[in-house]
Amino acid sequence: QYMKDVNCPFKIQERQETVDWLLGLAVRLEYGDNADKYKDSTPDGAKNTDNTAKNAEPLINLDVNNPDFKAGVMALANLLQIQRHDDYLVMLKAIRILVQERLTQDAIAKASQSKEGLPVALEKHILGFDTGDAVINEAAQILRLLHIEELRELQTKINEAIVAVQAIIADPKTDHRLGKVGR
Q: What Pfam families does the entry give (predicted)?
């Protein structure tokens, strides 16, 4: 009943969106009651207002009322599983933050490396089961080969970790090159 009274645009099943909307409503109402108190407040981390304003609003010139803009932001938000918000500019900022966090230099470098290998003849690899569809069988073979490649990379990393641990805990008196223990 309360949700209907405050005209919440979300259904009760959409819990995250509803809670976020309610929190936003509470903040708006609190600010509305004490606008003079909060008007001159600045964020704790604000250092230089000129740089902050320049860096915080790179998207200020966008037309947020354009239907194409709204559709694009919603599509991106759905793709990245970002919570919906009434303000599309806020959603776009959330998308920007997520992309900046996920696309670190290491991730970009790894993605830009092209993996070129030898061509693989799929008919030489036995799938072990038959789906009844040749296309699905071929896709399953490809997925199995990719999985094997990932397992080999994992095994290599495990072996490297074992060697590193053994180097740390090995008895320094042991000289495996001489084949004897002690001095």
A: RLL (PF10036)
